[in-house]
Amino acid sequence: MTDYIVPVRCDADSEPTGLFAISSQSGETVIIFADTDKWDRFVHAVAPVLHGEGEYIGAISIEAENFEEAVEALADMMPDVVADMVFVADSAPFTEEAIAWLAGLARGG
């Protein structure tokens, strides 16, 4: 079993308000992390962006055999939320592009 990390947006009271998704050509895209180093890099990139909006980054941890099972478990937990979202593994090229883009936003670029 692997622990997968799913990013969530949290309000000023640290209450979850929804999944953290990035708009892409494929739709609202959520990265599901298995690599904790990538997760740490992602958090460092996104935290300043959300903080500027009065929000914070949080996480849901899902234990699953593989990425597909993690997505299924998430869909079981929040069927209405995930219905129109695209999920990608942290090994997808999109992840590095998203981290770089978010880091640029955090720097004001």
How would you characterize this protein structure?
The structure is a single chain. The chain has 109 residues and is of the alpha+beta class. Helices cover 41% and strands 32% of the residues. The chain has four helices and six strands, in the order ββββαβααβα. It has helices spanning 36-51, 67-77, 79-82, 93-106; strands at 2-10, 16-19, 22-24, 27-32, 56-64, 86-89. The strands form two sheets. Strands 2-1-5 form a three-stranded antiparallel β-sheet. Strand 3 (22-24) and strand 4 form a beta hairpin. Helix 1 (36-51) packs parallel to helix 4 (93-106). The chain is globular and about 40 Å long. The model has no long low-confidence stretch (mean pLDDT 93).
The low-confidence runs, each spanning 5 or more residues with pLDDT under 50, are none
Overall 3D geometry?
globular
N→C terminal distance: 39 Å
Largest sheet properties: 3 strands, antiparallel
Mean pLDDT across residues: 93
Taking strands numbered 1, 2, ... along the chain, how are they ordered across the largest sheet? 2-1-5
Strand and helix order: EEEEHEHHEH
Please tally the β strands and state the result. 6
Measured on Cα atoms, how large is the radius of gyration?
13 Å
Helical run tally: 4
- What is the helix content? 40-55%
Please indicate the percent range of residues in DSSP E strands (runs of 2 or more): 25-35%
What structural class results from the helix and strand content? alpha+beta
